[in-house]
Sequence to fold (625 residues):
Amino acid sequence: MLQAEYITKTFKRKHGEVIALDQVSLKIEKGEFIAITGPSGSGKSTLLLALGGMSSPSKGAVLFEKNSVYNWDVNKRAKWRASQIGFVFQSFNLIPYLTVYENVGAGLALAGEKNISDALIIPLLEQMKIADRKDHLPSELSVGQQQRVALARALIKNPNIIFADEPTGNLDPETGKEIMQIITKQHQEGRTVVVITHDPQVAHAAGRIIRIAEGRIVEY
Amino acid sequence: MKIRQIVIKELFQRRNQLISSLIAVSLGIAVMVAIQSITYYSEKAVAGELDALGANVLILAKDATVQDYYSADFQQSEIPEDYVTILAESDIQGIDNMSPKFSLPIDLNGRQATLTGILPKNEFKSKYIWQGALGIFSQPEGCGTPVNIPGVTYAAETTVRRQVIEDLSPLEMLAGADIAKILGIAENDSLVVLGKKFIIIAVLPLTGTVDDGRLFAHLHTVQELAGKSDVLHSIEIVGCCSAISGGLIQKINKLLPDAKVVTITQIVQTQIKTNTVMKRISIILLIVILLVGGASIANYMFSNVQERQREIGIYLALGANQYWIIRMFLMKALIIGISGGIIGYLLGSVLAIILGPQIAGINVLPLPWYAVYSLLISVIIALIASAIPALKAAKVDPSIIMKEI
Fold:
């Protein structure tokens, strides 16, 4: 379904070139739950961005159903991202001036939905146990609630793939557990899930664990 | 969730930046609207004064003085009647009317008076005061051009008088208010001048000018009485106010090098110069507004893009394309432009209403069509100034969202 073929990503810095990913190849099957682990700076997030069509690799290709994602123009890639991928981030990345309802609605609108209504949004907010907070701004929510909003925003467009970058990294163990339950449920419903994590418990929820070090996959 | 809603929410979140940017644009537009409004009404006032004064440019013989003109003591200072033709056939713009005159000192029962020969139609067009007072013509519009009031029908008597006066015959005469009073003559009276019997067809209203002490007959009749032909003492010109400030006098001087060309409306001339200066200032201000307002919005937009890089990254991650990001920033510019234009227009109109009487001694009213100009200018400035920041925003690297706060 989604495949990285010998992707290399380098960044130019003042003191020279930094290799973030070094000839990484990876195949992700539909409905798979993968955990990517590794030390900080090992290239996990860079790999996730590359797989999500957000950061073009310096070399190699990312294929989605055998089509090279980075051969598409940026707008086609954006459309693909909007329809196929839901991102969840460690720091939630909610839009600070939009309410819970509007943040989730924005995810739907950018996926191309013209008729955004309560019927689409409220059930998901209820499922995430944040419906009573729908008119609150992110700054008025607890971190756990913020991550639930981020998850709702990612799930509202019913994506085939969920990329989660340290989704429990900023949460207390109990809330982290609840979030992982929601993510696991998405996998059980047939979605492909790729989670970056340092947490062994989170990693063990996945069907496959990939370990990265210094820009290379060292363990499948 | 529409782009418009997102933009409005964001604008209110960063309202301090919004307010400072709006102030810059609104003030610029306000100053421009104020100056333009005052200039507009000042020009109207000048046009009105010129209309009230009638002629504002005099052509005399080289050796004649303005004093000679007022005293009708021209002696031998004559100019060819051909000057009228030369002027009429020239390409000089801004001459609304010409009134050639020939004046003759006369003795009326031991009282010295002046008989002035006029071409009635030309004279009548130039003498707004005569027209207005007689109630025959409407208010003039623009630079001394009399127009009829649409839909107004004139009484039979008025129509007759108008036709009579416009067709001043060789034996007809008009009398100034003062001389008529002194001589005790009224309309339809007869008066013998230089052995010729004239009918007074109208006593002119009091004008407060030398006309009040004069008698008027057809130019060619007076020339004949003086034993002269094809010569004049003066040509009074109603020059359009903008043409006078645009060098009408110099152009006539160039065309008629043997004549003396003077403007008899020095006070108005000052006002015209003021208007010209104000017009130039408003053009300079427009350029300054373009630069300052544009720079202010561009600065705001650049810093806004810088501040919102992460947010832009989020939108990109959610599936926004580059056009969506550009639209978001341009819509913001549009909102600032429209708001700045409206606020600027309102503020400028209020300023003009307050400052008009103090600066130019005129009453100013808001000019509705300036609202459209204000909006257009403001929106265009905002959009142009935001174009590059919007393009920059569209090129934000979405991977920025991975950087932890």
